[in-house]
């Protein structure tokens, strides 16, 4: 059984040969890999595991693949294999209006205002490390039309068939052999308007400017239909997941009705195309408690969820009882890994019924925190490999 076949069997409610897939939910947090390096991980392994799409400490966007982001995933896969995980090749597809040059807008003795890689303006007061929102990417329909014009130029400059082939095509051979699975993440139809408008303005826009939200999402849908499908035709990802983050500890940020109009209808237009072009499973990444919206997500064609935020009350055992065919990645309480073997063992006991029921790749319920020692993380991975011998045992 190849690595790719093993992942497919693990997620698709089959009994894998030997054991189920051993994989992490997300790419690592640079603060955590820095700690691991201090505790003995080779520097070339730790330093190679970066996420180019987040401007976090010590990690700036790589402009050479700012939209067609594939090369960064090689370092992440090597890091994960070093630790004992199965090979997962992580790739991104970035929308053509979601990357900007970082630059200083204004600098005074009291503060600095800068544009970040997402096009937002943030303010940092002298003597403080805190960056405050200052101006969103867009505020009006006119702003959106201007941003869309910018995106059209970026599409012409960076998204030709030749450029897409050069970025992703080389992954097809190893993927076809089954050497690794491919996991592609993209920005979703709740996520992008929020990132452009800012959180509060986005919430008001559902009522005050629905035309603006639909204009944004119609354009996203067009790009995914025309450009993203070319990527999918090259590599047929085993998992595509939408980044949404539309829920908090107290529940979703939108009602089911708003979700249907502004998110689900776009899923319904897109997910069948993904499946027709060879995508294995479609997942949604949202933190918090989104239980109220699970039926809506499933009706829109979503196969599963990650990371299943334990500390927000997402109990994977109870959710599986309510939705027996729902698939999961994640749901291992990341805070328990830092506590050591006894806590890790107890957490595995909690999720074991879902492991035995199939359709589940256990992993941290978000990026492993820098409070975690390398020793404890290695224990967790060793235990995970052993317990995945029970994957699908009850099928």
Automatic annotation (TrEMBL):
One GO BP: porphyrin-containing compound biosynthetic process
Species assigned in the record: Hungatella hathewayi
Any one Pfam family match given in the protein's UniProt record, by short name: URO-D
Domain Uroporphyrinogen decarboxylase (URO-D): 198-385
Name of the protein this chain belongs to: Uroporphyrinogen decarboxylase (URO-D) domain-containing protein
Gene3D superfamilies (UniProt xref): 3.20.20.210
UniProt-recorded Gene Ontology molecular function terms: uroporphyrinogen decarboxylase activity
């Amino acid at each position: 059984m190849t690595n790719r076949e093993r992942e497919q069997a693990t997620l698709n409610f089959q009994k894998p040969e030997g054991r189920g897939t051993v994989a992490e939910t997300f790419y690592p947090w640079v603060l955590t890999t820095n700690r691991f390096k201090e505790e003995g991980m080779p520097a070339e392994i730790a330093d190679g595991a970066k996420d180019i799409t987040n401007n976090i400490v010590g990690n700036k966007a790589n402009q050479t693949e700012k939209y067609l982001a594939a090369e960064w995933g090689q370092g992440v896969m090597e890091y994960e294999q070093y630790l004992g995980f199965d090979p997962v090749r992580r790739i991104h597809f970035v929308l053509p209006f979601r990357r900007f040059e970082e630059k200083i807008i204004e600098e005074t003795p009291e503060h600095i205002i800068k544009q970040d890689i997402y096009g937002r303006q943030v303010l940092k007061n002298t003597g403080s490390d805190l960056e405050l929102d200052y101006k969103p990417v867009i505020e009006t329909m006119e702003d959106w039309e201007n941003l869309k014009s910018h995106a059209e130029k970026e599409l012409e400059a960076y998204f030709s068939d030749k450029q897409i082939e050069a970025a992703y095509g080389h992954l097809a051979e190893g993927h076809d052999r089954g050497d690794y699975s491919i996991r592609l993440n993209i920005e979703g139809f709740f996520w992008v308007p929020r990132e452009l408008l800012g959180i509060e303005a986005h919430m008001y826009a559902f009522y005050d400017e629905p035309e603006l939200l639909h204009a944004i999402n119609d354009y996203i849908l067009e790009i995914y239909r025309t450009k993203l499908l070319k990527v999918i035709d090259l590599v047929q990802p085993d998992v595509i997941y939408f980044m949404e983050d539309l829920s908090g500890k107290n529940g979703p940020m939108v009602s089911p009705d708003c979700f249907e109009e502004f998110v689900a209808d776009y899923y319904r237009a897109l997910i069948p195309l993904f499946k027709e072009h060879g995508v294995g499973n479609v997942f949604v990444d949202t933190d918090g408690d989104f239980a109220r919206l699970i039926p809506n997500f499933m009706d829109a064609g979503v196969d599963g969820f990650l990371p299943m935020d334990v500390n927000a009350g997402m109990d994977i055992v109870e959710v599986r009882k309510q939705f027996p065919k729902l698939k999961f990645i994640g749901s291992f309480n990341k805070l328990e890994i830092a506590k050591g073997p006894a806590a890790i063992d107890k957490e595995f006991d909690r999720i074991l019924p879902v492991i035995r029921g199939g359709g589940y790749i256990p992993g941290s319920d978000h990026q492993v925190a820098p409070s975690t020692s390398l020793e404890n993380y290695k224990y967790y991975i060793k235990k995970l490999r052993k317990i995945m011998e029970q994957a699908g045992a009850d099928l």
